[in-house]
């Protein structure tokens, strides 16, 4: 109990004033963050300040709870630190060589105080190596509700990064761990952003040499702040052949009984064997280089075109395509006869053989330098140092050309541009 009534009242008034002040500050910050035109960086900064005020208020509550000044408060329950909940607040994409921040938050979802010896944040780059960040860790955290740590870093290159947050116990053991990925692109901040993605299947030229694939990109009349070119799903071409046999055959057999009699009774049977129409399927990314259709005793339809004799590639190539090709065969030739007083077998057969030569992407992924010679942007050579490249120095407002030279495979590229 408090012996001095006036002293108790004064201590209680001070506590109430400080708590009220902290609540007012939090409400003001909450109102600020509701403004629609606030930027991501401003939101992050405001959130960091808000977290600082929250931590200060919670620490103040904890201090009053522990000190028992005047009010003689009871002891606070200590929560097992392994129950901590780790969260990461990020705002990617980040930009290479630009100061960046990531917020790490440790939450205590239980009634009481949680004491954590260390919270460690580790950031690894595209090469898998840990990079410098500040602070790398924070020790001796007292958490009543939430504690936030603002980690700053300077990403040196574009690519995919990871931040790993670890809560460390008193004996150095891992209490809880969380890993979150984020992206770093080239250039600087600001402006509008758009992404272009295209799958490329480049055909070789008439002499079977690797071809060039040229794409044009029309950019707004503004400076290019950031431009990242990514190459993925890269597959080198390999030569393949396909043969298909379609047939249509009818067999008739007749038996004449009572030869020489005008009342002879006859019996006949017919059998038909056919796999027509036949669906000839080529891979979706196939590029057809040669073809031949050999026909024997049949009418043959390919993609609605009728053929009765052997056909070379000049007529076939415009009809064949990747995917489904329907080959329909109808027999026309007849072999053998069956008279009124004699019998034999009647054999009607028609066939078609389709041979196709083509090249298609291998099932194995290849390095970009294995399927193309290089990249030129607006006539300038771009070093292919990685599957993701910063090409902002090569682009400008208006029309831009991207030339993938001597392509010998298929690939997909993604171009992400930020202008301002």
Name some characteristics of this structure.
seven-stranded mixed sheet; 420 residues; eight-stranded antiparallel sheet; single chain; alpha+beta; 51% strand
Radius of gyration from the alpha-carbon trace, in angstroms: 39 Å
Question: End-to-end distance, in Å?
Answer: 66 Å
Rough outline = elongated
Uncertain segments are 6-12, 33-39, 66-73, 258-266
Count the helices. How many? 4
What does this structure look like?
This protein has 420 residues and is an alpha+beta fold. The chain contains four helices and 27 strands. The longest helix has 28 residues, at 5-32. The chain is elongated.
Short description:
The protein has 420 residues and is an alpha+beta fold. 15% of the residues lie in helices and 51% in strands. The protein has helices spanning 5-32, 40-67, 313-316, 368-371; strands at residues 78-79, 85-89, 94-95, 100-107, 113-124, 130-131, 133-134, 137-143, 146-153, 159-168, 174-185, 192-201, 211-219, 224-256, 266-274, 278-282, 287-296, 298-302, 305-307, 323-331, 333-335, 345-361, 374-377, 380-382, 388-390, 398-407, 409-419.
